[in-house]
Amino acid sequence: MDAREPTLADLGEGAVLERIFPRLPISNLALLGPGDDAAILKAEDGRFVVTTDLMVCGPDFRTQWSTPFDLGWKAAASNLADVAAMGAVPTALVVAVAVPPDTAVSVLEGLADGLDAACRSLAPGCGVVGGDLSASDTFTIAVTAFGDLEGRAPVLRSGARVGQAVAVSGVLGEAARALRLLFSEAVDEAGEPDREKASGLRDRTRAQLAPKPPIQDGALAAIAGATAMLDLSDGLAKDAARVAKASGVAINFHGSALGEDVRLALAGGEDHSLLATFNEGTILPGGFRKVGEVIAGSGIFLDGEPYSEDGWDPYRDWSG
Amino acid sequence: MDAREPTLADLGEGAVLERIFPRLPISNLALLGPGDDAAILKAEDGRFVVTTDLMVCGPDFRTQWSTPFDLGWKAAASNLADVAAMGAVPTALVVAVAVPPDTAVSVLEGLADGLDAACRSLAPGCGVVGGDLSASDTFTIAVTAFGDLEGRAPVLRSGARVGQAVAVSGVLGEAARALRLLFSEAVDEAGEPDREKASGLRDRTRAQLAPKPPIQDGALAAIAGATAMLDLSDGLAKDAARVAKASGVAINFHGSALGEDVRLALAGGEDHSLLATFNEGTILPGGFRKVGEVIAGSGIFLDGEPYSEDGWDPYRDWSG
User: Fold this and answer.
1) What total of structural domains would you count in chain B?
2) Which CATH number belongs to the domain containing residue A122 in this structure?
3) Whole-number Å distance between alpha carbons of A80 and A86
4) Same structural domain, A107 and A224
């Protein structure tokens, strides 16, 4: 970080917020945006969808690998995917950020630009309506996202029924592949994350650092009659097992539909793609393609054989 | 921390969440609670109020001074106060928590109990509808709170007009007095926070560790016609200056209405009391009492003399 750049400690919270606010995307549904004790949002059908997620430096990102823009983008994208997975249209975010006081203000500006770009690209009309800035030894981003069901019933995890098609929209295993690449090639001789090496891998690591989940396919799936849906954050097998358990069914995947590295597709987390089930014969909307079917029983199957789920647990898999 | 207690790393995220969920308060307005990609809340008048705040170990709390119950209580109370300051009734919270993996599960249980007790006591009917658990070197709590305006106009910071009464509900300076006590008497010889000494000061430090803001007075003030309102988080003078600036007026405080330590009442942060302005002659609702009046000009006055504001800035005042 360039020591001549102004830091948050130099400017103070108020002045920093004045520089950040104009960069943030505006929500079409905001009745009152940032600046008072709270924001006010429209909820036209009398309900709203809400989800929250933390991104923590260390387990969730490294500042040598992710630019501030990437962090803003990913914080937005991962939360927008949870809203989409309910069958809702994302309407707004609130964003709380904690950073060390010696952080350059440009880091927060980059973060705001990433939030803005992700909202514009993935969920036009969605904006940031509020936030908080704090000091911390650990760079932490907490996003809460809101969505509008537009009068529709939400698509839960519990609606999958035997005989239905299992479909996915978005990439499978790409985020995990990119992470593996970063851990093997974007580190120095001591194994520590290396900024310059990561920047040379930019094109092959975007799925991890700045993923593009198919946000608009969430509402499209709901309109097409999806019976269950969720966001793939912990890996296809682990997340599909959640749908299976909540629905009291099993899910059988077709290996031939999961790409070249079937194991990676099943185990890799953080793609933020959408998994949904549809009545057999439904014309699949948007980017959805069939990857399996709902069968009787419990758990996950691959080409008819039981498959042991795998995935990412933030406590067990934390590497410090 | 007792090493024999199970930690988050021992149990994993899923098992921990199963232990936490039953302890959390239920929201009267939840159409769908925790367990899916997102929660769904009713917003009966077609709008909702939303605010977010981070609490970070170090600048915002010390685990030697605050029990897990205190942390849950304060995280709820401080966010509920922001909702109340809009004139709204708090309806729900989402809570994201990041802790070191070796944290005992009982810490999260205590935090859940504190959230539950604060909601029951300060905002009955308000509950936790969702959350997130992450690993972090720095214990961090991110709360987003929601409120229902019940068809009323929100009470903004910008509505104060010359001639109106300035009133406060809740304590002034008590949280700062308690913090000062903790820093002077609840430290060991090296100046480090000391758990045992803090526990002996419990009765005199509650205003800091587990404040009781007058949450229900927010909606009462709105119903009584409050013209401006805000939550006192950074000190009476600094926060009143925000109302004055947003409204294009000045505020004159009466020293005789500010208790024995006028300077502490004006400068002390974190009381989460409510400051509101009312038309002269309004019968003040709930716990509100008059502390000054709105005058022409700009800035803050004490008994007619200009008063230089003071307060807490998380970046400038961070002590590491």
Assistant:
1) 2
2) 3.30.1330.10
3) 10
4) no
**8 A C-beta contact, residue B89 and residue B150:** yes
Does the beta carbon of A153 lie under 8 angstroms from any beta carbon of chain B? no
Token output for A58: 């260390």
CA–CA distances in Å: residue A105 to residues A23, A116, A119, B82, B320: 13, 17, 21, 26, 19
The CATH number assigned to the domain holding B178 equals: 3.90.650.10
In a domain, A93, yes or no: yes
Report pLDDT digits (tens) over A26-65.
999 999 999 899 999 999 999 999 999 999 999 999 999 9
User: In which region does residue B151 sit, left (phi positive, over 0), alpha (psi from -120 to 50) or beta (all else)?
Assistant: left
Instruction: Tally Cβ neighbours within 10 Å of residue A188.
Output: 12
**Contact (CB<8Å) B315/A101:** yes
- Mean pLDDT over A121-133 rounds to 96
Distances (CA, A) of B293 to B248, B267, B279: 14, 18, 10
Q: Give the pLDDT confidence score for residue B270 in this predicted structure.
A: 95
The residue of A315, A317, A318 whose CB has the most chain B CBs within 10 angstroms, and thus the best one to mutate to test that interface, is: A315
**Which pLDDT value is given to residue A46?**
98
The whole domain housing A78 covers 8-148
A105 to chain B, any CB pair closer than 8 A? The answer is: no
Please check whether residue B267 lies inside any domain of the structure.
yes
Q: Where are any strands of DSSP class E within A186-239?
A: 228-232
Distance (Å) from the alpha carbon of A311 to chain B's nearest alpha carbon: 12
- Asked if B133 has any chain A CB less than 8 Å from its own CB, the reply is yes
DSSP alpha helices (H): ranges in A1-67? 8-20
Which residue, of B89, B120, B148, is where some domain finishes? B148
Q: What sign for the dihedral angle of Cα B54, B59, B60, B61?
A: positive
Total CB pairs under 8 A between chain A and B: 239
Question: pLDDT, tens digit, for every residue of A103-123?
Answer: 999 999 999 999 999 999 999
User: Measured between CB atoms, does B149 come within 8 Å of chain A?
Assistant: yes
Best residue in A80, A136, A146 for a mutation probing chain B (most B CBs within 10 Å): A136
Which residues of chain B have a CB within 8 Å of the CB of A315? 8-9, 11-13, 16, 101, 133, 135
Nearest to B82 by CA among A33, A129, A37: A37
pTM: 0.94
Q: Is the pLDDT of residue A319 over 50?
A: no
Distance (Å) from the alpha carbon of A263 to chain B's nearest alpha carbon? 23
- Please give the Cα distance from B41 to B58 (Å, whole number): 33
B203 and B95 within one domain? no
- β-sheet with B289-295: strand ranges across: B228-232, B273-278, B165-169, B289-295, B250-253, B299-302, B305-307
* Residue A34 sits at the chain B interface (C-beta within 8 Å): no
Residue B314 pLDDT > 80: no
Pick from A50, A56, A96: which is nearest to B129 by CB? A50
Q: Residue A53 and residue B132: Cβ atoms within 8 Å?
A: yes
